């Protein structure tokens, strides 16, 4: 199979007259673990959402794993099967058990057999440290546990790329570590990951690249060491002074 590539050229996105992404050009390769940092409202979520077709693109091109997302003929459901996404607010199905949450898409979309989907879900629950929660309902879980289920659910589709939009921002501080640990493990296994986060320690330790966005543009794109030790753009320096 060809190596995963994500190619983004002059991506613009507007909501009405509000231009939120102002010409983003970048590329991600297989195995990249990229943290995206920047102030609130700078277009980070919108950017991630354009990569799996959750936001329509105003202009420019986005090619994810060979799928041209600007081509109206592209089957977005197929793209979404290959691109897993984890949200700040978990978005678990509240009326399904943990196991059902994880097996739903493989059963419905991949037509996986029930046995195979169950075995896989139990493996994934083990991986995220929740083997004992298969039959629990989401409402009985802590935020950190819900987020680990959400990660397991995304992984159940065997995605080539995982998008994380502030996966720990809604968690109580004592829950953050467990979720970051699962993500670090995934990164170690070679998963390609784009992570919007305010966890600077994690970005520094786990990412191979850190992108700083502000005002809908990429202002810096460099190794974690460079971004945190030797920031160039004044707005990045200012941002780091505020968050570190
Ligand atoms: P960030 O994730 O960096 O905080 P967002 O991508 O959520 O930024 O938002 C960037 C801008 O886009 C904000 O001004 C926000 O109000 C606007 N925006 C985001 N989603 C929508 C939407 N669905 N409709 C209209 N405006 C939106
Ligand atoms: Mg956001």
From TrEMBL:
A molecular function (GO) term: ATP hydrolysis activity
Residues passing through the membrane, by range: none
InterPro entries: AAA+_ATPase, ABC_ATPase_HisP-typ, ABC_transporter-like_ATP-bd, ABC_transporter-like_CS, MetN_ABC_transporter-like, P-loop_NTPase
Keywords on record: ATP-binding, Nucleotide-binding, Transport
Sequence ranges assigned to domain ABC transporter in this UniProt record: 6-240
PANTHER family to which the protein is assigned, alphabetical: AMINO ACID IMPORT ATP-BINDING PROTEIN, ARGININE TRANSPORT ATP-BINDING PROTEIN ARTM
Name of the molecule in the record: Amino acid ABC transporter ATP-binding protein, PAAT family (TC 3.A.1.3.-)
Upper classification of the organism: Bacteria, Bacillati, Bacillota, Bacilli, Lactobacillales
């Amino acid at each position: 199979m060809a190596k995963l590539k994500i190619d983004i050229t002059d991506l613009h996105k507007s909501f009405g007259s509000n231009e939120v992404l102002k010409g983003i050009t970048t590329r991600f390769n297989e195995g990249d673990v990229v943290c995206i940092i920047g102030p609130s409202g700078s277009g980070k979520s919108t950017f991630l959402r354009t990569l799996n077709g959750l936001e329509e693109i105003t202009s420019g091109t986005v090619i994810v794993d060979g799928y041209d997302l600007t081509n109206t003929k592209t089957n977005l459901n197929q793209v979404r099967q290959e691109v897993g996404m984890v949200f700040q607010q978990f978005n678990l199905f509240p009326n399904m058990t943990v196991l059902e949450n994880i097996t739903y898409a493989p059963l419905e979309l991949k037509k996986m057999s029930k046995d195979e989907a169950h075995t896989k879900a139990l493996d994934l629950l083990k991986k995220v440290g929740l083997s004992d929660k298969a039959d629990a309902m989401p409402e009985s879980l802590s935020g950190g546990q819900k987020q680990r289920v959400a990660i397991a659910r995304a992984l159940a589709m065997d995605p080539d790329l995982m998008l994380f939009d502030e996966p720990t921002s809604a968690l109580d501080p004592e829950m953050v570590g467990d979720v970051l640990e699962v993500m670090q493990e995934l990164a170690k296994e070679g998963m390609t990951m784009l992570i919007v986060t305010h966890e600077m320690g994690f970005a520094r330790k786990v990412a191979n690249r850190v992108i700083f966005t502000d005002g809908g543009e990429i202002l810096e794109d460099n190794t974690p060491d460079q971004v945190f030790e030797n920031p160039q753009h004044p707005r990045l320096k200012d941002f780091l002074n505020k968050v570190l």
